[in-house]
C-alpha cells in the first residue's frame, strides 16, 4: 500500500460521495476532529495505567467515537446503505460520566487556568480543540446536511475533558490554579447563573 496517491496535489481531497477543496468547511471540520483524536492519544500516554484505568478505557472509547464522527462529517449525503454512525447513546454516556467526575473533583468556585499536571494540561488542550471542532461543525451544520448528534457530542465532550482534567489533578494531588482575577462564578460545581 502506498501512503501517497498524488490525487490531492491540486488541493482537492476525496470525501464520502465526492471530492472537495481541502479548505472546504467540511474538510476543516473532520480534520479538526482528527487533530483532536491525536491529542487524546497524547493524553493517554501521560496517564498511569493503574490510577487512571477508568479514564483510559473511556478515552479509547472516545477515540473510536471521534473516528465515527469524522466519518459522518466526511459524508456528503446519508442513505440507507450508508447511515450515520454516531448515535445518541454516545452523548448519554458522556453526560453520565461527567456527573460522576464532577462529584470526585474538589468543589469549584472560580475559573481555573489550564494546567496543573502534564496530563491535565493535555486534556485542557483536548477541551479547547474540541471547542474549535464544535465551532466548525456548527458552521457546517448551517450550510449542509450533517449528523446533528456530532454537534451534541462535541459540546458534551469539551465538558467531559474539563471534568476529567480536574479529576486527574485531584488524583495526582496537584491543585488546580485559580484564575486570580476571577469572581466567584461557581457554586457546588455549577455556574451562578445556572442556579
TrEMBL record:
Catalytic reaction(s) noted: 2 cob(II)alamin + reduced [electron-transfer flavoprotein] + 2 ATP = 2 adenosylcob(III)alamin + 2 triphosphate + oxidized [electron-transfer flavoprotein] + 3 H(+); 2 cob(II)yrinate a,c diamide + reduced [electron-transfer flavoprotein] + 2 ATP = 2 adenosylcob(III)yrinate a,c-diamide + 2 triphosphate + oxidized [electron-transfer flavoprotein] + 3 H(+)
Enzyme class (EC, first level): transferase
SUPFAM superfamilies from the UniProt entry: Cobalamin adenosyltransferase-like (SSF89028)
Signal sequence residues: none
GO molecular function: corrinoid adenosyltransferase activity
Domain of life: Bacteria
Pathway named in the protein's UniProt entry: Cofactor biosynthesis; adenosylcobalamin biosynthesis; adenosylcobalamin from cob(II)yrinate a,c-diamide: step 2/7
EC number: 2.5.1.17
Keywords for the protein's UniProt record, in alphabetical order: ATP-binding, Cobalamin biosynthesis, Nucleotide-binding, Transferase
Pfam families reported for this sequence: Cob_adeno_trans
Gene3D superfamilies: Cobalamin adenosyltransferase-like
Domain Cobalamin adenosyltransferase-like: 3-168
Annotated family: Belongs to the Cob(I)alamin adenosyltransferase family.
Protein name: Corrinoid adenosyltransferase
